Amino acid sequence: MNTDTAARPTDAPLEPAHPPLIRSFHGQTLVDPHAWLRADNWRDVMRDPGLLAPDIRTWLEAENASAEAWLALHAALRAQLVKEMRGRIKEDDSSVPSTDGPFAYFTRFREGGQHPLICRRPAGAIAGETVLLDGDALAEGKAYFQFGDAQQSPDHRLFAWTTDEAGSEYYTLRIRDIEAGTDLPDLVAETTGDVLWSADGAHLFYIRRDAEHRPSFVYRHRLGTDPAQDVLVYEEPDKGFFVSLGRTQSRRFGLISCGDHDTSEVWLLDLESPLDAPLRVEPREPGLRYGVEHHPALSGVESLVIETNADGAEDFKIVTAPLSSPGRAHWRDLVPHKPGRLLLSATVLRDHLVRLEREDGLPRLVVRTLADGTEHEVAFAEEAYSLGFDPGHGFEKTEIRFTYSSMTTPAEVWDYDVASRARTLRKRQEVPSGHDPKRYVTRRLMAPAAGGELVPVSLLFAADTPLDGSAPCLLYGYGAYGMSMPSGFSTARLSLVDRGFVFAIAHIRGGTEKGWRWYREGKLARKTNTFSDFIAAGEHLVAEKIVAPDRIIAHGGSAGGMLMGAVANMRPGLFAGIVAEVPFVDVLNTMLDDTLPLTPPEWPEWGNPITDAQAFATIRAYSPYDNVTAQDYPAIFALAGLTDPRVTYWEPAKWVAKLRAAKTDDRPILLRTNMEAGHGGASGRFDRLEETAMIYAFALATAGR
Questions:
Q1: Which phi and psi angles does 316 have, rounded to 5°?
Q2: pLDDT above 60: residue 6
Q3: pLDDT category, 647, cuts 50, 70, 90?
Q4: Per-residue burial over 205-236, b = 16 or more CB atoms within 10 Å of its CB, e = otherwise
Q5: N or C: which end of the chain has fewer CB within 10 A?
Q6: Rounded to an integer, what distance in angstroms lies between the CA atom of residue 208 and that of residue 210?
Q7: Three state DSSP letters for 555-577
Q8: pLDDT of residue 384
Q9: Closest CA to 399 of 421, 378, 370
Q10: Which residues form the Peptidase S9A N-terminal domain (predicted)?
Q11: How many CB atoms lie within 10 A of CB 424?
């Protein structure tokens, strides 16, 4: 359907004349007419957006002006949406304090504040707050500001914290003297944001990126010394592996986790002997994934507790091994593999093992008593919901914390005693403007898809919305990297639902909602299952007369944005509009460029078209940019971030340029590039509402609401 065609803004910007980029791979010729939009100095632009070439900046800003001209037609609606969404936010909200020794740490917002304050107070007290970091004050005068990691030292005298001030995910590490309220001179620039303290609080571990923006080098810093003298502890030799830092619940070991989407390797840092070299648990093996926890006396032996897919355990199992001989030859099953029951995460307490798992598309918590192996579940009644858990601080305790919500139920934070099974509600999300769950309905449908598969679809709609085939719909999807889309609560989406929209989440292949097989069936050569599943979900909603056949707005971001580009090419008539946030749409060209940050680590997900002719052909057949053709397209709203290191700004820019040149309809196509942010968009919580309001205004206008 046409959308505001009579009131469209002036013509979109004319693309400057540039010669196409012509290359050959595997005997095939690629012609890229819009390659000029890729900045040759993209690494420098990540650090300083002002270094973007003038012709590219001019074109992006002209696109922004064109998009704003269209969005200006709906300025009153956008303002109303922001007012509604802000009215549902408790502006002076705070997190539930987490006790660590003598203090309880928490974050809070002040009324009208954009950024969090990181605070603490004496454990068990309700007064005596100390503001460790004031996000609003630190962000003042900056176009972008985002906290990364923030960790107190073991003796609680110091606070290590990281910030990104460009959206490029280069974080600066600082160390604050809590009593003095000032930072030490130990400043480290361009880290990944991860921070890890040694047990004596005299050393910090952190990660630096390589020239291609990949996290590759683990360093040890001794407090009070020049960071230029920091010691390289670990260097990742494989450009396809990323490195991260973590810590066991026992606090004995730091974890250097290395891996891609298919393989992992873990090294132990003895935090009590921080000068020792790290110890590798098990050498990397293609396809072998594992994660590590530690128990100082499991069955009388200091042991590792390992979650792994070894020995064909596709949905993972949990094994143990002696710390003295941690390799795979010594792994013994503790929680055996059960096909279809995906183990998501696990933590070890002194007397209990707590795991988060998912079966039949729904998550649950399972508590195992280590002494006798007995287990119990933490049960929930709703048809679809979201669940997460936080082990908090401390190994000796019996209490964990979990967060529960559904598409109709605001988030609840509970403390749970794994021994007594007592639950204590610590917080229920407040909606200041009011929220009555009885006014809304959530449902779970199963949409028939290719190969006899059934795709779960979670729905939210107002109880008075007629399900007669007339309702508009926002259909959200992702479908990549094994990530599942939670059926949780969102105050923002109520602005659509209250206007008669059905909000739907398609739990398509490429995620793990139905186990690891669900992921495997949506990657590499089977990637097109992701797209056909999403289309099947939309078609099922129409066939069941839940939504209107010409009023579906598809929405996805990042790899989900690639999904948006693919379904726009494959089934444009099913969708009235497409919202693609930071969309990974130039898949083939990106996977052919091994200098980009994510390309080598992404080959296990998509294939390596440089060396593999079949992978080249497979990706070329679905890559959204490469398959734009002369046909009618839905209305399209694409959003990008100039300093985005994950999906570079030129992907959506090139896609939009190619769509403009090829499409045969007069529906609007909008490109908005945030010139001061990266992958996550605006950093302030109210600034993010402005971006959401743009998306929802586009959806409402496109659906005729």
A1: 75, 150
A2: no
A3: very high
A4: bbbbbeebbbbbbbbbbbbeeebeebeebbeb
A5: N
A6: 7
A7: EEECHHHHHHHHHHHHCHHHCCE
A8: 84
A9: 421
A10: 20-428
A11: 11
Cβ neighbourhood burial of 124 (10 Å; 0-12, 13-18, 19+): exposed
Q: How far apart are the first and last CA of the chain?
A: 13
Query: Which of 667, 505, 507 is closest to 576 using CA atoms?
Result: 667
Query: How far is Cα 24 from Cα 596, in angstroms, rounded to an integer?
Result: 19
Q: Which two tokens stand for residue 379?
A: 């049960």
> Mean pLDDT throughout 74-92?
98
Residue 13: DSSP 8-state: P
**625 exposed, middle or buried (CB, 10 Å; 0-12, 13-18, 19+)?**
buried
Interatomic CA distance for residues 704 and 576, integer angstroms: 10
Question: Which is the CATH superfamily of the domain at 81-87+434-703?
Answer: Alpha/Beta hydrolase fold, catalytic domain (3.40.50.1820)
In whole angstroms, give the CA distance from residue 613 to residue 221: 45
C-alpha to C-alpha distance for 43 and 194, rounded to whole angstroms? 21
Six-digit token string for 474? 């926002």
Phi, psi of 35 (to 5 degrees): -65, -20
Output the six-digit token pair for 556: 């996805």
- What is the C-alpha to C-alpha distance for residues 388 and 392, in angstroms, rounded to an integer? 12
Residue 73 has pLDDT above 70, yes or no: yes
Confidence class of residue 12 from pLDDT cuts 50, 70 and 90? low
DSSP H or E run through 290: strand 290-298
Strands (DSSP E) found in 383-490 = 386-390, 399-405, 412-417, 423-428, 440-448, 454-462, 473-477
- Read off the pLDDT of residues 102-157 as tens digits, 9 standing for 90 and up: 999 999 999 999 999 999 999 999 999 999 999 999 999 999 999 999 999 999 99
- Of the candidates 416, 439, 434, 435, the one whose C-alpha atom is nearest the C-alpha of residue 426 is 416
Which secondary structure element, helix H or strand E, spans residue 537, and what is its range? helix 528-543
Domain map of the chain by residue range?
A: 81-87+434-703, 295-339
Q: Is 249 helix (H, G, I), strand (E, B) or coil?
A: coil
Tell me whether residue 436 is exposed, middle or buried, using C-beta atoms within 10 angstroms of its C-beta: 0 to 12, 13 to 18, 19 or more.
exposed
Gap between the Cα atoms of 550 and 572, Å rounded: 11
Q: Which helix (H) or strand (E) holds 158?
A: strand 158-164
Cα separation, 366 vs 353, whole angstroms:
8
Say which amino acid occupies 429.
Q
Q: What is the DSSP letter of 614?
A: H
DSSP 507-530: --BTB-TT-HHHHHTTSGGGTHHH
Residue 378 near residue 401 (C-beta atoms within 8 A): no
What is the pLDDT confidence band of residue 431, given thresholds at 50, 70 and 90? very high
How far apart are the C-alpha atoms of 73 and 702, rounded to whole Å? 12
Catalytically active residues are 558, 644, 679
Give 211's DSSP letter.
T
Q: Are 476 and 505 in contact (CB under 8 A)?
A: yes
Contact 525, 618 (CB under 8 A): yes
Structure tokens at 187: 């400043």
Position 381 confidence tier, pLDDT thresholds 50, 70, 90: confident
